[in-house]
Amino acid sequence: MKKLALHWQIVIGMVLGIVLALILNNFSWGSTFITNWVKPFGNIFINALKLIAVPLILGSLIKGVSDLKDISKLSKMGFKTIGFYIGTTILAVSIGLITVNLVKPGKSITEETRTELLDSYAGEASAKKADAEKQREAGPLQALEDVVPENIFSAASENSNMLQVIFFSVFFGVALIMIPENVAAPVKSFFDGFNEVILKMVDIIMLAAPIGVFALLASLVIEAPSADLFVALGMYAFCVLLGLFLIIVIQAILVWVFTKIKPSHFMKAMSPAHLLGFSTSSSAATLPVTMERVEEYLGVRREVSSFVLPIGATINMDGTSLYQAVAAVFIAQAFGLDLSFSTQLGIIVTATLASIGSAAVPGAGMVILVIVLAQAGIPEAGLALIFAVDRPLDMCRTVVNINGDASVATIIAKTENQLGTPTRSI
Ligand code: ASP
Questions:
Q1: Range ranked top by mean pLDDT from 1-10, 88-97, 105-114
Q2: C-alpha of residue 398 to centroid of ligand 1, in Å
Q3: Pocket residue to mutate for ligand 1, from 281, 321, 367, most atoms within 8 A of Cβ
Q4: What are the residue ranges spanned by the domains of the chain?
Q5: Backbone angles phi, psi at 300, to 5 degrees
Q6: DSSP per residue, 247-276
């Protein structure tokens, strides 16, 4: 019998997880059972993915950069990558603004629902505000300063320091190109082997993916707020989802135009990464799988993927930026504020920068949204309005974030002549 494709195994795991939670929800002991006996397997799975994120970036980026042999190639690719990332993010924010201005979801929210939401989620909203406050206190060049670690071991001990690890790896790789070839050779072959080991670890972890997502989805369903709130926020959620859908279509078309890879093929090749992004709500945790899919199933050479994808996971968030634009205008509408054209242009700038500053972990986009709201003069208490549906939307925007990174990596590979024949077929 032919083995079921990985994405189907994952889908089945997800569905079974949801079904189990819906059934157990009817028993008084159901939710404790899932929390105690099912959720830990989901956490173990996410931990295993996160466990290899730092070694993966270190190993593959050092190898990728040193394989380039030529520093000017690296800076050309660097500029192109950043250009594509910023361009697609601005496009995403603009689409978000257009959708939310056309649909006007905030106008349909009743006074009663607004008060109910503000009352129920005020506590959570102020916790997010406090998190954002810490980030806001930083000076204008703080983000740049933070890229250079003072100690590589402490940088590598924290997954949130991804940019610092990237900085060290690129620096190391560049220096490796500059030393005599015979001295560099053993170091390079060490990293070649190191890389293979890490990729094998990704393969092994992915064998557990169906069980991991089963556990993750079951615990998410059990913790979800009541369905009434979903309905109240339906128009808002619809706007975000519509925008996300448009972005994903545009990303696939861009890949098709630049590389001739058919959208259906691209989506199929990336689907396990999409499903994992959906289940974990973290582009950082999904990074090892995104890299594997892009290299093995789309043919992007490691020189490109190892450079473009980790940077993308940290700074390129098309889904998050779109969501921030929609959420900001929605909150303004719900409070009866009319945003001027120039305020909305300001949102394009702040949402673009804010999405760059959002960490690739669950819920990060919402913390940074506070800054977008403050900049546009929208009441920050409005965060409480969108809290109830944030997690499901986070799951969806993470898929778009991942897809954005993969599409830019594929396009850059093509323009750099680094798109080969895939080693595996779907
Ligand atoms: N969860 C998102 C990601 O990891 C970030 C966010 O929008 O909260 O890509």
A1: 88-97
A2: 5
A3: 281
A4: 6-415
A5: -75, 130
A6: HHHHHHHHHHHHH---HHHHHHHHHHHHHH
- The rounded Å distance from CA 295 to ligand 1 centre is 23
With beta carbons less than 8 A apart as the criterion, state whether 311 and 57 touch: no
Check: CB of residue 369 under 8 Å from CB of residue 332. no
Rounded to the nearest whole angstrom, what is the distance from the C-alpha of residue 188 to the centroid of ligand 1?
34
Q: How far is CA 46 from CA 41, 216, 285, 416, in A?
A: 9, 9, 7, 33
> Is residue 69 helix, strand or coil?
coil
The protein residue with its alpha carbon nearest to ligand 1, atom 7, reads 365
Query: Rounded to whole angstroms, how far apart are CA atoms 21 and 32?
Result: 11
Residue minimizing CA distance to atom 6 of ligand 1: 365
Which range among 32-41, 215-224, 329-338, 342-351 has the greatest average pLDDT?
32-41
Name the CA radius of gyration of the chain, rounded: 22
% of the chain with per-residue pLDDT over 90 = 57
Structure tokens at 245: 């859908």
Q: What is the CATH number of domain 6-415?
A: 1.10.3860
- Counting from 1 in the atom list of ligand 1, the atom nearest the Cα of 360 is 4
Residue 98 CB contacts under 8 Å (≥ 6 apart), including other chains? none
Q: Which residues line ligand 1 (CB under 6 A)?
A: 281-283, 317, 320, 358, 360-365, 394, 397-398, 401
The reported pTM is 0.89
Higher per-residue confidence, 128 vs 289: 289
Among 49, 317, 326, which residue has the most ligand 1 atoms within 8 Å of its CB, making it the best to mutate? 317
- Helices 181-207 and 53-68 meet at what angle, rounded to 10? 140
